Amino acid sequence: MTKAPKIIPISDLRQDASGVIKRMASSRDPLFITQRGRATAVMVSMKEYEQTQHELEILKLLARGEKEIEAGAGFDLETVLAEADAMLAEH
In degrees rounded to 5, what are phi and psi of residue 29? Predict the structure, then answer.
């Protein structure tokens, strides 16, 4: 079952910004902020933001790798695995 999104009007955010931020810090869910009845912003905890940015970077790297493979500019699997093993052995 899908969770209902958390939505608050901007006036509530203005009145209790500190409380809203405290609740966001412990939540994984985004908070939708409305103005004049329309969604205008989304607030997430810093931890969730950082996780999202990390996942976005991984997706960008995967997309770049796919383009390199299509262009014939990638490395074969054996070479990549050998380099990975060497890097792990160094640590």
Answer: -90, 145
Mark whether 35 and 67 lie in a shared domain: no
Complete DSSP assignment for 7-18: EEEHHHHHHTHH
In order along its 91 residues, the chain shows pLDDT tens digits of 667 889 999 999 999 999 999 988 888 899 999 999 999 999 999 999 999 999 999 999 889 888 888 888 877 778 888 888 888 888 6
Same domain? For 51 and 37 the reply is no
For residues 44 and 52, the answer to whether their CB atoms sit within 8 Å is yes
Model pTM?
Answer: 0.67
